[in-house]
Amino acid sequence: MSYIVATEQLTKRYGSRTVVDGLNLRIPPGCVYGFLGPNGSGKSTTMKMLLSLVRPSSGEVHIMGQPMNPATRRGLLACIGSLIESPPGYGHLTGRENMRLVQRLLGLPDRYVDEAVRTVRMQDQLDKKVRDYSLGMKQRLGIAMALARRPRLLILDEPTNGLDPAGIEEIRDLLRRLSGAGVTVMVSSHLLGEIDKTATMLGILNGGRLIFQGTRDELLAASTPDVLIDTPDPEYANAQLKGMVVSRLDRGSVRVSGIGD
Ligand code: ADP
Description:
This protein is of the alpha/beta class. The chain contains nine helices and 13 strands.
C-alpha cells in the first residue's frame, strides 16, 4: 500500500518534554483523515513537522512514498496545500487580489484560482475586502488559497475553530466535496463530533501519542483503553476522561472503554 503520508516514529521534544511521541501515521490516498485530540496533544506540532515548519527531533516523514529530506523537500511541499495558523490574507485587499498575489509568488496560473473559488463556493464574495469577511469566509479563503496550488494533499489545522454551527457545516460540506474530487485531506479537531461524519479515517492523539488509528467503524468497535466512544453526554465523558476527545455522536449509549462500564 502506498500512503500519501507515512511517518516512522516521528517525535518532537522541547527540552526534556516530549510533545509528539513516536507517531506512525498512515494516511491512504483519497481519504479524509480526521486528526483528533484535546488541546495540547500535539496535533499542530505534528502537522508542522509534515510541512517541514518544525524539525523533528527524531523519526521520518514520507510523503507519497518519498522520504522528506533536503533533496526532496521542495518538490514534495509543492504537492501540499495547508491552512495551519490563522487564516492568511491582507485585510485591505479583496479575496481575489490576495489569491492572485499568492499565485504570482508561487508562479502558478490565475485560472487555478477560479476553480478553487468555485470549490469553496466563494464566487460572490471574492471581490469584497478581506477585512469585511466573517471568520468562516476567511477560513474558506485560506482553503481556496491552499487549493489553488492544486495539491495532492491538504493539511488543515482546526479549520472549524471559532466557527458557528453554520460555518462548521460549511467546512464539513467542503471536506466532503474535496474528498469526492480526489484530494486527500488531513484535518485536525479537538471535537470528534465536528468531523466524525466526514472523516473516513481517524487518528486520535493523546499526550503526543497516537492511541487509535483506523476507520470510524473500527473506532466504534474498538476496545482501546482511553478511547472515548459514542456518548450522548459530553459532560459525563469529560468528567471521566479529563479532557479526552469528546464524542458528540448523537446515538447509542455511553460506552467508554477501560473506564469500568
Ligand atoms: P495541539 O495542536 O494538539 O493543541 P500543539 O502541537 O500545539 O498541540 O502543542 C503540543 C504541546 O507542545 C503543548 O504542550 C505546547 O505547549 C507544546 N509546544 C508547542 N510548540 C512549542 C514550542 N515552540 N516550544 C515549546 N513547547 C511547545
